[in-house]
Amino acid sequence: MEINVLNLSGKETGAKVQLPESVFGVEPNDHAIYLDVKQFLANQRQGTHKSKQRNEIAGSTRKLHKQKGTGGARAGSIKSPLFNGGGRVFGPQPRDYSFKLNKKLKSLARKSALSYKAQDNNILVLEDISFDAIKTKTYVKMVADLNVTDVKTLLVLASANENVYLSSRNLKKTKVITADQLNTYDVLNAGKLLLTEGAVKTLEEALAK
């Protein structure tokens, strides 16, 4: 798949980039995408939720009232889950939600997500970006010139560029990452995928195996 390279003003530079079929033209595997996104979201969870069981509640151990003759149910402890302030039955405990996925499956998931974006013509290739200073106004102008102001965008750089990243950080509908940070969730979550020429080469080297 051949695509025109745009400059920061949204105009064609005359150059073209070939998006490799082995990365942007595979048969998408929805189950691989599901597993990779599930793992990504699971890894974001802290797993620090905790509720107290009855053995962890601070309170008296006295019997509340006599066993029989009250006309009510038997009650032996104020810590019972039946009472307000008592322990919780089978409450949440700290745990690790992360799980392992094979590298080949994760690679297939990323290629599947990129292929979906290519099929829907939601990929723009830009010349390599470099800002001289940290200016959100410059990034906003670039997005406006590319006609993606009202769309969620994911800009993928070949290597880290602090000026570009900091210029975009306060904007709601945009995210900037490097090619080695690319993940299936971010690709699918974006309406438009903005790739620099260098990022395309990096992705081809990493995923076209």
TrEMBL record:
Alphabetic keyword roster: Ribonucleoprotein, Ribosomal protein, RNA-binding, rRNA-binding
Keyword 4Fe-4S belongs to the record: no
InterPro entries: Ribosomal_uL4, Ribosomal_uL4-like, Ribosomal_uL4_dom_sf
One Pfam entry name: Ribosomal_L4
Ribonucleoprotein keyword on record: yes
SUPFAM superfamilies: Ribosomal protein L4 (SSF52166)
Gene3D superfamilies to which the protein is assigned, alphabetical: 3.40.1370.10
Region of interest (Disordered), ranges: 45-89
Biological role stated in the UniProt entry: One of the primary rRNA binding proteins, this protein initially binds near the 5'-end of the 23S rRNA. It is important during the early stages of 50S assembly. It makes multiple contacts with different domains of the 23S rRNA in the assembled 50S subunit and ribosome. Forms part of the polypeptide exit tunnel.
Subunit-structure text: Part of the 50S ribosomal subunit.
Family that this chain belongs to: Belongs to the universal ribosomal protein uL4 family.
Stated name of the protein: Large ribosomal subunit protein uL4
Species in which this protein is naturally found: Mucilaginibacter rigui
